[in-house]
Specification:
By secondary structure, the protein is α+β, with helices and mostly antiparallel strands. It is built from 4 helices and 8 strands. Its cofactor is Fe(2+). Its EC number is 3.5.1.88. Pfam families: Pep_deformylase. The active site is at 175.
Length: 204
């Protein structure tokens, strides 16, 4: 049984055992474009990736399944070298602790996503980045574009274009990097991990 056959079985829920860790060559390979119309497997895989993120963000389910919380997942992290990513960024509660009107700021499965335009300004998360495929803390600012325009296809094969900024922009760039064999720590300045160049936007 191939990896994708195993992951897309009706009974299977993606868990941490399915996620490969740094050192696995698939994480350094440039992934293949998917072709349209998509296979049922590619569609189901995308849905299961999104379901994993939902499970990982639900405290009860995450504890039961032993999941680390995540906001993004790329197919190469599942040892499948295809350009498929899932992103799920929750909206915060308001100041009074009320749930947001829209649960998610970004909820999407993207096929063949790519950056077609980006800002001159760079940005980084003030707290740094983590990755489900990296079981250690890597400190430093991960330098990315502050704003990006992303082109991708949905599961129906419709071409989409979205503009992202802030945290959403960082999440999608992190996942697109996975489809290009790039790890987040490749973007940290080795000699000076917390260097702040002029104009760098630090996102809290």
């Amino acid at each position: 049984m191939s990896i994708i056959e195993k992951l897309t079985r009706a009974s299977h829920l993606i868990d941490m055992d399915d996620i490969i860790r740094e050192g696995n060559p698939t994480l350094r390979a440039v992934a293949q474009d998917v072709t349209f119309p998509l296979t049922d497997e590619d569609i189901i895989l995308g849905e299961k990736m999104l379901q994993f993120l939902k499970n990982s963000q639900d405290p009860t389910t995450a504890e039961k399944m032993g999941l680390r919380g995540g906001v993004g997942l790329a197919a190469p992290q599942l040892d499948i070298s295809k350009r498929i990513i899932a992103v799920l960024v929750p909206n915060p509660e308001d100041e009074d602790g009320n749930p947001p009107k829209e649960a998610y700021a970004l909820e999407e499965v993207m096929y063949n996503p790519r950056i077609i335009a980006h800002s001159v300004q760079d940005a980084a998360l003030a707290d740094g980045e983590g990755c489900l495929s990296v079981d250690r803390v890597v400190e430093g600012y991960v330098i990315r574009h502050s704003r990006v325009t992303i082109e991708y296809y949905d599961k129906d094969g419709d071409k989409k274009k979205i503009k992202l900024k802030g945290f959403n922009s960082i999440v999608v760039q992190h996942e697109i990097d996975h489809t290009n064999g790039i790890m987040f720590y490749d973007r940290i300045n080795e000699k000076n991990p917390f260097e702040v160049k002029e104009g760098l936007l630090l996102i809290e």
